[in-house]
Amino acid sequence: MQLSQNPINKTLEKQLGQMFYQVLAEIDSLDELKTIFNDVLTDGERIAVLKRLGIALYLDKGRSYEDVKNNIKVSSATIATVAENLGNPGWQEMIKRIKAEEWANEWTDKITGGIKKIFK
Prior knowledge:
single chain, TrpR-like_sf, 6 helices, TrpR family protein YerC/YecD, Trp_repress, DNA-binding transcription factor activity
């Protein structure tokens, strides 16, 4: 994935960014979001984002660089870049939401299992 060395006009960048984030904020479904990202991002860009997310989650769980490197197939430099940014609000929000979803799923499974036992 190579970025152009030609800078975009800052005003235009701001306007395009505003439009992009507004579109994302208005998306109603996971399927719609997947469709947009699959069309807007190349496979390489999408995989790069997913790998960074994987690195962040592994590091948040206290896994070693070596473990991250072996499982996600990334360099130590990429891990270090993500690690440097893990304290930033965007990463914190992403991790918080994923943990909340994992917690909710875990408790849903426990409650469902308990109800099934009661009504057997």
